[in-house]
Amino acid sequence: EAQLVESGGGLVQPGGSLRLSCAASEFTPSDSGMSWVRQALGKGLEWVASITSYSSTTYYTDSVKGRFTISTDDAKNTLYLQMNSLKSEDTAVYYCARGGRAHGMDYWGKGILVTVSS
Predict the structure, then answer these.
(1) What pLDDT is attached to residue 15?
(2) What is the mean pLDDT of the chain?
(3) Parallel, antiparallel, or unpaired for β 3-7 and 18-25?
(4) 67: left (phi over 0), alpha (psi -120 to 50) or beta
(5) CA-CA distance, 84 to 14, in Å (whole number)?
């Protein structure tokens, strides 16, 4: 069965950077569409970014455009989310998932906490 494991979260000051990783097993991320979704404390799930199969196209929610970059590395079977110029409102648990908004997401990681605070 496919599995996804996130890493790279933690505490960062406003304006700082973090790179989240999502290690995949039993499938290759670039063969599938992949997404990052986040959930702030007390709020619902918010889609953040997606990358289509074979990394042909990327999509971002407006609040992270120009600051976040989604990518895949076939050699490492890993999905990434590079997050720059972080803001307090980016504080959330971040989940990676296989799939996208159009056809749904069928496998999810357990999530990793990102806290942006001084």
Answers:
(1) 98
(2) 95
(3) antiparallel
(4) alpha
(5) 10
Q: Return the CA Rg of the chain.
A: 13
Model pLDDT for residues 23-65, shown as the tens digit of each residue: 999 998 888 899 999 999 999 999 999 999 876 799 999 999 9
- The pair of structure tokens assigned to 84 is 């720059």
Q: Under 8 Å CB-to-CB from 20, ≥6 apart: which residues?
A: 6, 7, 8, 9, 36, 80, 81, 83, 94, 96, 112, 114
How many beta carbons lie within 10 A of that of residue 29, not counting itself? 25
Write down the pLDDT at residue 82: 98
Planar angle of CA 72, 91, 118, nearest 5 degrees: 120
Which is it for strands 10-12 and 68-73: parallel, antiparallel or unpaired? unpaired
Residue 108 token pair: 């999810």
- C-alpha to C-alpha distance for 6 and 4, rounded to whole angstroms: 7
